[in-house]
Amino acid sequence: MDQRPASNRYNEPMPEGDHVDPVHSRVRLTYDDFVLFPDDGKRHELIDGEHYVTPSPVPRHQAILWNLALLIGTYLDGHPIGRAFAAPLDVVFSNFDVVEPDLLYMSRERAAEVLTVKHVKGSPELVVEVGSPGTRKRDETIKKRLYERMGVSEYWFVDPDVNVVRVYRRDGEGFARAIELDLEAGDVLTTSLLPGLEMPLARIFRE
Q1: d(Cα 154, Cα 151) in Å, to the nearest integer?
Q2: pLDDT 10s digits, 17-33
Q3: Is 9 helix (H, G, I), strand (E, B) or coil?
Q4: Which pLDDT belongs to residue 132?
Q5: What residues contact residue 129 under an 8 Å CB cut-off, 6+ apart?
Q6: How would you label 187-202 residue by residue, b for 16+ Cβ within 10 Å and e otherwise?
């Protein structure tokens, strides 16, 4: 699965392999370049000015994302304290950093500050990525560091291969060590951002 930064010439083929250390000698792209990327059904993102392309997700990825969105959405129906969105929705952190998380959440107060008619311009409080074989390294390195640097309060990395959720919570200027929750252990995911919501991993990974 192709995870190297895309060429600046959009019609050139992308090299093979999962790449997590962009070639910084390339031209640093901006949001103005981002809006010109093709609408081809793939996920296009900019991280520190590097263009990344991710193929369409597989069914298991989408099933897990649906389960999470349903759990959070149902909670918010009864507790309208914020807004949640599933991909595709662009999050514009800076002119050089534009990503499309699988799922994000903002309190009503935060949404009033960063939600525009086109995208999110600023940091959501919660970002969720559901991993795949081609994105795992990037999700837990480059994207994790981006979310940490940009002030995201919590980052959840969902790993379908081992049925684990790793929760990174802000502690001062960065994320504390990940809390690892395991399906086999019967763990339940909770967060102070959504008080009272309990999400058993059996529900998250249900197919």
Answers
A1: 9
A2: 344 444 444 689 999 99
A3: coil
A4: 82
A5: 101, 102, 135, 139, 143, 155, 156, 157, 158
A6: bebebebbeebebebe
